[in-house]
């Protein structure tokens, strides 16, 4: 009799298709080539972990948890799929230009990721986007290996040094385009171009009126942080025209925010931007324009619902996204009699998210005590009472500043009221779950702040599930608690409105290590990681398909995370003078140096996380 597969408890078919599934052993597996993965090519994640743990680095150090598993074959498949989507839309609609994208380095600056994408995208003339001087230097180096003509899009606020560096990239033969975020940046470009005697290629960033809802919409609209409204863009074009430099202007860029939820918004934004592009060409004489950069926004369906109803979901796939842009730009340009521009996008999240997962080691599981005072009946009564006490609309005598102050005060009271309602509702939801069965806090070898900072910072949810035992019914309602000394270091909110995660009883004696994977986590988390409690980054494991059957794979590299010594050094300590020598001196004076020395050395030369932890037995 076939064993039951409990992968769908975690909605793996929703968010995991076509890269993740559960095999007959009840193990999480990766389909490295997506829908092109052949039978027997699936990679067993539990086997990868065990093999990685058995390796050592050049100094005979064994890997420690937490770890990130990278699957570059998935990264390549995502890139190929994006280009196939745009090529299909272009071919089917009679669009007369091409698609040529870039990867925004800020999404994942890791050397292997950036270099892989440049190599995988060589045939597509795939380029890079930089938003700072360090990212620009990375891009300049990596794009020397790219196909000539690949874009180097230079975004972000710029000083003279940034602009000069971008111009030097053009002097090197790279296709660097300086995108103006503000009108005054043009003066910097003019000055540095004359100084270096390098002619620039420039773009302008449009501040569109099209907006998206939710957290990610804050970077768009007329009050957005970046770009210029259409009238200012036209002033830039007119200024260039008067100088006889309008031929510098080649690109129009826009970005309405990350995680665009629906194709209606994708279409509307592309239509609005294409209208500005056409006006630049037809009304302001910028006939040398070549490219419309649609920015980021191609989302990832983290919760697998395809609903587009929250910041965790989008209601489309790659094909629908590409088709919406191509159709919108084609129709707008045709209506205005303007040649179709090259289409560029800065799709980073959608490229990088799927290719890596964070592996968390369970250390212990402790039942959460019930709060007998706050029964679900009492919590419901508190919610009903609070909802009947909406803050009154503030009134003030007269107008002017008094009215503004009153409105501000009312807004603050509404916010406080909403927060209290949310806290009670969250507590009620957890209490209902706890009444049905005991909730266990699974202590994980994890720092929320270092591994999943977006969860802490903006409430980003990632699909999570056990790596093994998925042919057994997960009977425990668990939350994940990290090892930092911070009450925020806890994961108690999950996709699909979950307040607990279904887990298995922790029994390392019978089953060995118990690991939970945080998936779709390849975008932003490493770049945003912080060093709270001086916990560092994870061990990095690069896993490639061997190309054969039988689930064959090869671990190409295992790179241990930063040691305690390296992390301490980032806080401006001279580890030898400020730490080691001081400890040695006092320990020697107290006659305990022979005991302290090996302990100090091990503490400095290993990762800060728990190592070889013996899990206590828990009765479930």
Automatic annotation (TrEMBL):
Pathway: Amine and polyamine biosynthesis; agmatine biosynthesis; agmatine from L-arginine: step 1/1. Keywords: Decarboxylase, Lyase, Magnesium, Pyridoxal phosphate, Spermidine biosynthesis. The active site is at 485 (proton donor). One of its GO terms (biological process) is spermidine biosynthetic process. The modification N6-(pyridoxal phosphate)lysine is found at residue 106. GO terms for molecular function: arginine decarboxylase activity. InterPro entries: Ala_racemase/Decarboxylase_C (IPR009006), Arg_decrbxlase (IPR002985), De-COase2_CS (IPR022657), De-COase2_N (IPR022644), De-COase2_pyr-phos_BS (IPR022653), Orn/DAP/Arg_de-COase (IPR000183), PLP-binding_barrel (IPR029066). Its EC number is 4.1.1.19. Its cofactor is pyridoxal 5'-phosphate; Mg(2+). Coiled coil: none annotated. It holds the Pfam family Orn_Arg_deC_N. Residues 98-352 form the Orn/DAP/Arg decarboxylase 2 N-terminal domain. It catalyses: L-arginine + H(+) = agmatine + CO2. It comes from the Eukaryota. The keyword NADP does not apply. It is an enzyme of class 4 (lyase). PANTHER family: ARGININE DECARBOXYLASE, ARGININE DECARBOXYLASE 2. Belongs to the Orn/Lys/Arg decarboxylase class-II family. SpeA subfamily. This is Arginine decarboxylase. It comes from Oryza punctata.
